[in-house]
User: Fold these one by one.
Assistant:
Number 1:
Amino acid sequence: MNIKTDFCLKPFNTFGIEVMSKSCAQITSSGDLFELFEAGELQKQEVLVIGEASNILFLTHFDGLVIMPLMRGKKVISENESEVILKVNAGEYWNSLVDYTVERNWWGIENLSLIPGKVGAAPIQNIGAYGTELKDVFESLEAFDMKKGEIVNFNNEECGFGYRNSIFKNEFRGRFVVLSVTLRLSKLSNPNLNYKAITDVFDGKKTTEISISEIRDAINKIRESKLPDPQKIKNAGSFFKNPVVESKTAEQLKTEYPEIPVYKISNTKSKLAAGWLIEQCGWKGKRIGDAGVHDKQALVLVNYGTATGKDIFDLSEKIKNSVLDKFGVELQREVLVV
Ligand code: EPU
């Protein structure tokens, strides 16, 4: 396997930040990982696994080994009249997988249409959009343990999925390389129209009359209207998480700001819309040098060209501070800062 040194990461992170890594290994099978382990490469330095790096902000050069899993391929493990168990290798593009399942009328991930990134990254932050999260269809994953040099399996429960969260962002951060992800998809029509923007599109239509491709198309349209096209404006999707607060806090804010979107998530907790909070602080469409806040969705920070990771990070700090000052709510970054 070929390990490249002084590797330029600019084309390999969706923020388009110009940084280098000390070395980079492009992996085409688990055998490559065993080889790296045997050679001590995984133990002697810092290791960072990236898919499309669509959720990473590089602050500076990475003084370690970047691993890029490139394994492609999908395999039906089993199926019956009502469902299919599909194993997908980590190097597949997530949105190509969505297209593949939509073409076959396999329901479950159509609401996750147009999410950038690769399949191996999907479980790390339990990708989610329009009322669906990966965990809803996730069966298991196979991963390489860089500490022990062995392949292990994780089922749904073992991944500890939460809102944009999993065990791989916490206690197992940096320890595993995801090799493949197995999904349980439905062959029976099963539209998820819970999200308001989707309900509105299909208002008055019978659920049984809505096709899977209509849902995918509706979601693509909504995303394209709000989110910047990564080919044109560099970005990493939502920069912050939607903050989860005590419902009491949300109610207090609602009396002061009747328009504030509040989503109740349990008896005691509510989620606020970070994009709304940021917009209210006047940041939507603002730009400092080449670092900016997208003009159609304030939760998305963008690089208009030559912004450095630090430029974007500094802008995010200013945004955090103003939301804290105005609403008393602390935003947490969704992107991984390296
Ligand atoms: N809003 C504003 N101003 C803004 C942005 C949003 O007022 O600039 C308001 C909207 O009007 C709406 C509410 O905030 O009332 C929620 O907005 P939206 O439906 O656009 O979704 P979001 O909460 O901002 C989340 C995800 C997105 C996902 C959408 C749709 C997070 C951090 N983000 O955004 O995920 O596509 O819901 O489900 O949970 C991503 O993770 O990269 C991502 C794009």
Number 2:
Amino acid sequence: MTTIEKARLLKLLYQYRCCGFEYFKEYKPANVVSKNSSGSFEELNDKVQSCHICTISKNRKNVVFGEGDKNASLMFIGEGPGANEDESGRPFVGKAGMLLTKIIENVLGLKREDVYIANIIKCRPPNNRVPTMEEVSACKPYLLEQINSIKPKIIVALGSTSYHHLMGEYDMPISRIRGEILEFGTAKLIPTYHPSFLLRNPSAKKDVFADMLKVKKLL
Ligand code: URA
């Protein structure tokens, strides 16, 4: 297949995907499909590892699928992988991740591995820019499948990108909505500030502390 043919095919597949077709089920290069897929979560991971729907997949080092307890009651959803996450294939492992881990352990009294941590998108956008609507449309269905499978009781949306794309409320500032207890299917969704924001604005830590106390009460 020529490069132009490939590009045309990818564009067409992307359009189908935006319409809700799961056409990429057909796209499973043999070398990336795990032989011991044991359940739908693992199959989903296999599918995501071979995803090339949007352009940022081209420059990724690793897909950051998400990690934690697949039966967790609590799920944290950030924006997208940064450099450390792209390098390691794991979510929230840089400075912001260290702060998130502290929040989970010291405020919620849980272990990091007891919760599930994921992002709105699974590949690192160039220079850590905010993901585009196209990228989110291509990637969010994977996250929704994860949420569907984990069935968390509580989802914490970390930062405005996460909140906006989960709730479809693109004009609401995170400073106004944080700490509210919202409905997300059968789960409660609580938006709060992103840990990267806290690193730049330590005075907002008290707000996140208050939001986490609400989470703790609901668990
Ligand atoms: N910021 C995010 O939103 N997600 C990560 O995984 C890391 C940093």
Number 3:
Amino acid sequence: MKLDFQYELDHIGIAVETLDKGFEFYRALGFEDMETEEVPSEKVKTGFLRLGNRATLELLEPTGEDSTIRKFLTKRGPGIHHICLRVKGIDQILEQLKSKGVRLINETAKQGAHNCRVAFIHPASTGGVLIELSEKEKNG
Ligand code: ZN
């Protein structure tokens, strides 16, 4: 299978203490607002900043003490949390990775923000980067 151009950068996830605090710098850059959405399943509030090339920055604020973002902030402080690649055929890709022994955090895709199905790949298998795969749902 030829994989060139199959993947696009969807967003970069950035852990912040609060969306307001995290947004201050981007306001200084000239961003006026962000689109916010709560993802209860992940115990996070997200703030999306649209960039020019279809990619976004996703600020991530924890909404519970057991949020993975809370744990990340406690351990490492605010900063880049993950990189998300936009894909087509996420189920096939996950099967392909499994067959190659890649360690997945989500064995199957789950519901994410913005009507997407997402799955995370463990940094132990990617060279230290938490990678999210995301596929836009076809209907809605
Ligand atoms: Zn993300």
Number 4:
Amino acid sequence: MTVGHKRSAIVTGSSRGIGEAIVRRLAKEGYHVCINDVAANKEGVDKLAAELNKEHGDGKAIGVVADVTKSAEVEALIKESVEKLGPLTVMVANAGIAQVQSALEISDEDVQKMFNVNIVGVWNCYTRAAKQMIAQGPVAEGTTGYKLLGCASIVAFKPFPLLSHYSASKWAVRGMTQVFAMEMAKHKIQVNAYAPGIVGTAMWELIDEKLGEIEGRPRGETVKKYSSELTAMGRVSTPDDVARVVGGFLCGSDSDFVTGQTIVVDGGIIFT
Ligand code: NAD
């Protein structure tokens, strides 16, 4: 059996922020999309699914609550997506958390939590989605292959102080992406990651608040300072800046000969 032209994508952590922008872009590209987040964000998941079904036609989007740190929940997420949307062609392991703290003040529990979401979460998504794709059989001749995508960060290339366990976790995503690219190529599965810089989402609100506290700046000033001083293009990134590269390029056929890469989308903060 071969998988034909109908494409479906799961995007984890997509009730808001970068994940939401990726889901919106993929729906526009004609994908059937599975929105995912943790139970605390179920309302956002359901709202986005309803909105996309209204905009693109009933049955185009579903919302599934699952915690990516739990492999059984990732398996159930994939099962539901395949049952309702058809064969899985794209998995975007986008969910992640951040914490700003001096390395010596980070608790064991915080380290474990960071690695669980940002590393084990991506691992669960890559392994379970790859198994599903292999079981589905090869994609039809002339169609875009299967794609696994992981969310890294600029800190996967250049770590920043006060982001030690976060930087380590994103560096791990970059390494994992390279080895999966090598192992999965024979199954016609490409594996890439994306590395955003300073994106205006809930995550950066948190970083802004904590860094501002430590470095003595009022709320909103840290994100302004870093985006204008560190970014060649002189502004904060929008989730759409990232979604265009992920949903447009990395999930699409223009990237069919790209694998094992971590593509930086940061407006010019780091240069690889
Ligand atoms: P966000 O906090 O707005 O979105 C992250 C989403 O992931 C949230 O909805 C959250 O509930 C979800 N999530 C967290 N743990 C989960 C779990 N265990 N299972 C399922 N979902 C879970 O942040 P964002 O900025 O949109 O971040 C998206 C990704 O981009 C993250 O991996 C983040 O590390 C990465 N990133 C963000 C920036 C930035 O500047 N905002 C920069 C580089 C990388």
